[in-house]
Structures
1.
Amino acid sequence: MLENEITYPHINSFLADVLKQSDPLLEEMEKYARKAYIPIIQPESAQFLKMLCTVSKPKRVLEIGTAIGYSSIILARTMDENGVIDTVEIDEDMIEKAAGYIKRAGLENKIRVLHGDAAEVLECLGTPYDFIFLDAAKGRYIEMLPHCLRLLKPEGIFVTDNVLYRGMVAKDGFIEHKHRTIIVRLKEYINLLCRNNELTTSIIPIGDGITVSVRTGSNES
Ligand SMILES: C[S@@+](CC[C@H](N)C(=O)[O-])C[C@H]1O[C@@H](n2cnc3c(N)ncnc32)[C@H](O)[C@@H]1O
């Protein structure tokens, strides 16, 4: 489990125990991700994402950051029969691995993996989405935001993972040099979300920190 200063260790282990994976494919994916150091969504955040998806019943989901397809599969299984997911990934090895798992989950017709740098791929997308999950390079969330806003339907849900970055975003005092730029960018990103009149945003301190925004204003420009 990733060390963080967002939640207490005893709460993390309690949640890990309660939310222990019972699905064999997802369990296999979690094991592979741990072994290969692939940062998939944490169990409590995955459960929260699933809950948001269940409540909002999206027909079209956009995910930015597929990795091995773990969160895509969780979302796709939660959606209605006709629901579709477009998920964007830059790394070819990840795409290959994701394609294998998605096939084994029998979700090839529901999940479309789009290969490329998200900033460029999103530029080419035009049909809006009911639900957007941003989970790619944290240092580039600000750059992705206008695309996500353009592609989010009125009343759509916009979720971003890792916004508290192991708690460092909220920390006063010394931050190691290698993390400073990312921290500055994440703080700015959170501020942009919270100050946006078209969104109502909540910051949830679970996992690595999640924001949930609902589009309450108009996206007409
Ligand atoms: C945190 S992982 C995604 C985890 C996945 N959502 C899950 O929980 O199963 C982030 C992924 O974003 C991808 N990524 C990073 N920068 C990207 C970019 N600019 N465009 C597309 N994908 C990117 C990485 O290769 C990595 O696989």
2.
Amino acid sequence: MTNSQTVHLIYGATAAGKSTYAKALATEKNAVRFAIDDWMHSLYGQDKPEAMSMEWVMSRVARCQSRIWTTCLQILATGTDVVLELGLLREQVRDRMQAMVEEAGHQASFSFVDADLQVRKQRVLHRNMEKGDTYSFNVTPAMFDAMERYFERPSQAELGRSLVIAEDIKHG
Ligand SMILES: Nc1ncnc2c1ncn2[C@@H]1O[C@H](COP(=O)(O)OP(=O)(O)OP(=O)(O)O)[C@@H](O)[C@H]1O
Ligand SMILES: [Mg+2]
């Protein structure tokens, strides 16, 4: 057995539907899912400073990512795929992630989950109220805007390596 597995890497802007998609994918692939928001909330949620900076958040995201990856290597070695929602907000970060996966002898499979800005704003409001399946914490308009500035949409070249998921499922 070669133990070369697939690392499913999910990225996209706020409330595009990443967690919803990642959960379904993990079930379909019989994979283990890691979501950075869950880790951040449970490890650092109680320590949040009054004025939260991107620097404060990103340094903790990096620590979580590092621990998650160490655990992923063990899971992959057992012959199980992983589904990762690690933020991966910049193309360069996604490039580095791909290199890390390949260096470890596995394949990276990117999914870019997308939805229109207005749809995503509506989804955040709805999720904040409903606190459904994929709710980790309240996303304020300020947080939404900060993430919007920080997130780098994939270039045309990057779209070539990404599956694009952009279906708006109407409920009810
Ligand atoms: N394809 C879809 N069609 C309609 N509604 C959706 C779809 N995908 C997700 N939703 C709903 O939109 C909201 C946001 O979805 P989800 O939490 O999966 O997004 P996310 O990208 O993980 O958000 P975040 O960036 O905050 O982690 C949820 O309430 C979810 O039920
Ligand atoms: Mg999510």
